[in-house]
């Protein structure tokens, strides 16, 4: 249940990234920052912590297997100033997560970008990005 | 005889010049001593957030281009494995922002790198002292504006020895005594323990702060260079808690378990799915 967003969009996203805010704790060299990946799944844990908030998601794989994804956003200090808190996500939430996937194909997502988000099934943003 | 007379005149002139320097210094000390009881000449206080919109290099440095280095400086620069900037690597051993999954990165960024760490900082001014409180890892700096001079042979520290004075609408901060364990920025720009940092801090408007930073380190760079850093006031915000040792949990839960950093060679391989902690 994961899709790669059209590569054509990546140019536009690239421009947005250039004008985006400064990123937080560490560089993003391990992630494919040129393309966005979208996964749909269920939140199993949400940690609203420094230096990065972490979202754990169970995703049903193409072959019926369960994939355990982990996504990181910016620090809880930054996110709280954007209006998010420890209750923004809770276990059991059905979510659509948009982020940059690990280059090596692991189930890791980087959510520190303007286009990145965790939304509900109605595409309402539950956890956006704020720096 | 004429030669001797010339020498004497030169000697007398030297004494007069020297004594005038001494007089100027003592006058400076005397004037500075008054600062102990004087209010700061300009109000820089407040909580400040970086404001460098649309400037990609501001994420990791003070300047867009790499300053000209000495051979000693370049050797250090090439040995650095930063997490940010044009020389960023996946498995960074950055002493502050590592991605090895083992290092916690709790060493102080140092001066001036602390201004690049993307968190708020607060300026608190008192007569005779300016304090900078950084949200990032709760680091702090003291800038003494009470007229004291630098120690003649300062102990080398991560944040150095800072003295300051007011020139019109500007706080000038002079820092020496920095150890050579830090980088100038997040991109791995090196420095030696001869680093001398001059900051000119002003408030061009009530909600804006501008810091001009000059790097003077002849052991690392062929000439002095400088850059600007801009901030915006966040009047309703406060510095929040930020404890560096929390990085250890983050390393374990994300750097190691996500598998994103498990292979230095990007490939189609999928990492073993991580099991979220219960």
Can you describe what's shown?
The complex is a heterodimer of chains A (131) and B (278). Chain A has 131 residues and is α+β, with helices and mostly antiparallel strands. Helices cover 14% and strands 34% of the residues of chain A. Chain A has a single domain (2-127), classed as Beta Barrel (OB fold (Dihydrolipoamide Acetyltransferase, E2P)). In chain A, strand 5 and strand 6 (108-110) form a beta hairpin. The radius of gyration of chain A is 14 Å and the shape is globular. Chain A starts with a strand and ends with a strand. The model of chain A is unreliable at 5-22 (pLDDT under 50). In chain B, strands 1-2-3-4-5-6-7-8-9 form a 9-stranded mixed barrel. In chain B, strand 5 and strand 6 (170-176) form a beta hairpin. The model of chain B is unreliable at 1-9, 11-32 and 265-278 (pLDDT under 50). At the A-B interface, strand 2, strand 4 and helix 2 of A face helix 3 of B.
List the helices and strands and how they pair.
The complex is a heterodimer of chains A (131) and B (278).
Chain A (H helix, E strand, L loop, with lengths): L1 E3 L2 H12 L18 E11 L6 E7 L5 E7 L3 H6 L12 E8 L6 E3 L6 E3 L5 E3 L4
Parallel strand pairs in A: 4-6
Antiparallel strand pairs in A: 1-2, 2-3, 2-5, 3-4, 5-6, 5-7, 7-8
Chain B lengths: L1 H33 L11 E5 L20 H9 L41 E6 L2 E6 L5 E5 L16 E7 L2 E7 L19 E10 L2 E9 L8 E9 L12 H11 L22
Parallel strand pairs in B: 4-5
Antiparallel strand pairs in B: 1-2, 1-9, 2-3, 3-4, 5-6, 6-7, 7-8, 8-9
Structural class category of chain A = alpha+beta
Mean pLDDT of chain B: 86
Spatial sequence of strands, sheet with the most strands of chain A:
2-3-4-6-5
| Distance linking N and C termini of chain A | 29 Å
The CATH class label of chain A is Mainly Beta
CATH overall fold name of the domain at 46-73 and 107-233 in chain B: Lipocalin
Indicate the multimeric state.
heterodimer
Greatest interface (CB-CB under 8 A), with counts per chain: A-B, 40 and 52 residues
β-sheet strand percentage of chain A: 25-35%
Low-confidence sequence ranges of chain A = 5-22
Number of strands of chain A: 8
Order of helices and strands of chain B: HEHEEEEEEEEH
